[in-house]
Structure formats: structure tokens, C-alpha cells
Design a protein that fits this description.
Elements: E1 7-10, E2 18-19, E3 22-23, E4 41-42, E5 58-63, E6 72-74, E7 77-84, E8 87-94, E9 100-107, E10 124-126, E11 129-133, E12 138-143, E13 149-154, H1 155-159, E14 173-175, E15 178-182, E16 190-194, E17 200-204, E18 215-217, E19 224-228, E20 232-236, E21 243-248, E22 261-263, E23 266-271, E24 276-281, E25 288-293, E26 304-306, E27 309-314, E28 317-322, E29 328-332, E30 339-343, E31 346-350, E32 355-362, E33 365-373, E34 385-387, E35 390-394, E36 398-403
Parallel strand pairs: 4-30
Antiparallel strand pairs: 1-9, 2-3, 5-36, 6-7, 7-8, 8-9, 10-11, 11-12, 12-13, 14-15, 15-16, 16-17, 18-19, 19-20, 20-21, 22-23, 23-24, 24-25, 26-27, 27-28, 28-29, 30-31, 31-32, 32-33, 34-35, 35-36
Length: about 400
Amino acid sequence: PRQRRAVTLPCSLGLVALIGTALVGQAEDWPHWRGPAYDGISQESDWQANWPANGPKQLWRAPVGVGYSSMSVSNGRVFTMGNKDDVDLVSAFDAVTGKPLWVHKYDCEAKDPNGYHGTRVTPTADGSRVYTLSRHGHLFCLDAASGKVVWSKHFMSDYGAEDPRWGFSGSPLVFGDLLITEVGGAGSTVVAFDKSTGREVWKAGQDKVAYSSIVPYGPTGAESLAEFSAAGIVGRSPKDGAELWRAEWKTSYDVNAATPIITDGKVFVSSGYGKGCALIDFSGGATKTLWENKNMRNHVGTCILVDGHLYGFDEKELKCLDLATEEEKWAERKYGKGSLLLAGKHWILYGDRGYLAVADLTPSGCQELAGFQAMEGKDTWAVPVLANGLLYCRNLDELACFDVRP
């Protein structure tokens, strides 16, 4: 498509634990993919789960362009992405009122060979900055208050990267002073940038990129990185990208999309297209597959691990698996190829046709407490977000906010 200069248009989101000093039940932001701890779990427990038949009150709804991007919430703003007429839109709204704050626009072809048009990546908010990535490798650092460009990269022109078949989908990771993301190209499967300036700090890897987000794991102050490339699951040092361990995991069409789940020196991986799932031990540096089966095939979503059990979507079935024994505990087909999050003691389920529900999930089964048709359309795969007592969800081109404050 013809190129135009990028412009910004001003327009003037329970478990007993501690997160920093925030107590369970206290409202908190949701600044990036999978939430504060990268596990799909919100520490908010003081929210209204007793919904009326037509659902909680909708506070606002806004067009955001076509896409599958989820939302991030930080400092009173909610961010998401979409595309309209081959122009990407990075939008910021007042998190409570829905007032449009700014829109950052740039040319980006939205067409997908299989009809899944638009954006994929969830914005990453970090204080006064927000980081976004297009399906065609446009990486931006934006001022969170104004949407103005601080710095940018283009993976194709800067690194010789190739478009993944379904577009770049992994959300950028802020790690200390670094912004880390899969890029592609020779020797640059993963690249770490100075998050303030965009200067390259290190690059590593020869694998083809896939569709998953890099996540940190390990004790605070001594974390490592887990990267799910097209070739498999890889542990890396955040200091220089050095490979710490590796396990092969190849999937049809290179669709390793679910975020890896790390626990006690083991990693759980799952992929769709008939591939299945596995629990892999990497604690000794070498890797060993503890078990592998087809009971959980995450295609577009990621499981959540709670008390030794995995909850997630095996293609179009919501399931529970025992992590240690690999046993399937139950399956529920009501929600299609949906998504989920845990907030306090209740779960929020979002079906692939816009049905939003609150439920109790245990190893014994799924008990829906309430549900309603929140959004219209199909392929509503963007994960809903709960932040500060407000519940955000979207379909292919609209974002809605529901009030679940107590």
C-alpha cells in the first residue's frame, strides 16, 4: 500500500496474596497482556458478581477499528488497537467515561489471507509510555498522555524480518529498562531495545517467530525470559538473550500462540491444529518432557493455572486439567473458542460470539452464575479485562465498558 507519514490525532480495569503493597480486593490496573503478574489473574475480589439478567450496567461503548487486540489499563486510561481502511488505530480512552483522549494512526494493510483482518497485539503500558506493535512489524513507543511518537521501528526495513502468516501477534514486554519482543530476521528472533530511546541493546536467536508473547519467570531480581517461537519453547537470559534451555515444539503453520506457563522449574505449552499440550521440566538446564497429550489444544487463548489445575479452551471446549497427572477433569462446550480470566474467587468467561459470563470453576466442574449477550458478532477472541471495578470487552470493531464496582 502507499505510505503516508504516521500521525497522532488528539481528541480535545480471590487469592490471598500481596502484589507490592496492594492488598487483595484493592482495585488495580491491568497494564499489559495477561495482567500484572502475566498469569491472567486479577487480584481484585471486591467486584460485583451478582449480575442481573441483562448484565451489569454498560458505561460506554466506542468504535476502535477491526482487530483482535485486547486492552490494557493504566493511570486512568484504557488502550487498544484496531484498523480501518488499511490504517491502524491506536486508541486511548478515559477508563471510566470512555471519552476519547487520542488516536495514533499509521498505514498498515489489514487484509488477512484467511479473513482474520486487523490487529492482534495488546498494547503494553508502562508509566508515561505505551508500546504497540502492528501485524506488519511497526513498533511504536508512544507518549501515554498525548499519543505522540517517542520512537519507532519497522521490523521489515530495520531487521529484514518476514511477516508471520497471520501477522505479528506477541505483545511487547517491558523488563526493567528494556522493551523485549520477537522480531525475526538473521540473528534477531528476539530483540531488546532501550525502552526510552529505542536503541538496540541485544539481539539473539535464529528461529522463525510465532504468535506468542515473551514472559518473565523466576524469582524477583533474578528473572529469565520464556519465548515460544515457531521452533519451540526457549529460556533466555534478559541480560544478553543467551539461550538457557530449549525444547522442540513444532505446530502446523507455526501457530505456537498461547503464552507459556512457568511453575516450579517446569513449563506448560499448548497449541492448536491438533498438536496438544505438554509439561516440560527445564530445572536442570536440559529439558525433559514429563507428559504430552491432546487434552488441551490452545488455538488463540491461553490457560490459567490455579492450585495445580489448568483452566482453558481446548479448541471449542472449556476444560480443566490436573497439571501433575495430565488428567482431564471435565469439559464444557457452551462458550465456543472463548477466553477467560480469574478475579478473586470468580471467573469471567467470554464466548467467541460475545457472550459474557461470571462463573465458578473448580476441578469438580463449571457453574455459571450469570451471563448475557455483551457484544455482537463472531470470533470475539480478545480476552476481557477487569481493572478498578470496570470490565472491558470487545468484538471485532467495538470496545465496551461495564460497571462491576461494588
